[in-house]
Amino acid sequence: MIGVLGFLLLAVPLVELFLIVVVAERIGGLNTFVLLVLISIAGAILLKREGVAAWRRVQAALREGRVPAEEVTDGALVVFGGALLLTPGFFTDAIGLSLLLPGSRAVAKTGLRKLFGILALRRLGAVGAAATAGRKIYSARVTNERRRRAANPPVPEPAPSELQVPSAEDDSPDTG
Hints:
Order of helices and strands: HHHHHHHH
Helix content: over 70%
Strand content: under 5%
Number of helices: 8
Number of strands: 0
Shape: elongated
Radius of gyration: 34 Å
């Protein structure tokens, strides 16, 4: 995972620089700068609008008494998309814009869930596989305790009347 992050930290700025140079050659340096600023302003406006909408959906889910997992995921993707739009560059702007638009955000959300499922499987093994598949996980220890008790039932303590043995000094008749 660290290797992928390191690669992205090196590759994304290089791609951004390349795209800025290519666009500047086509439309001019000043026009490229103005375009990047306009995209950032539009991104800030879109971020505010979509962020407020996501926040309202979270509040509505809480009012309905349900966990707002879907809405929180939407909100996180909106914030991430907005941060990418505020970053200068055409590549990050394209990704950020796709995360702010509801249709493409749904695709990203599905991919993100699959990625987290794979990471959970790697991290948690069989327990993670059962949890992500929606199956219940039972402890083997509880099962073993139940089996041990069934195989060796507890011995009842003798009743107090069974503990008293008649003695020779007793007045009771001895038939023995």
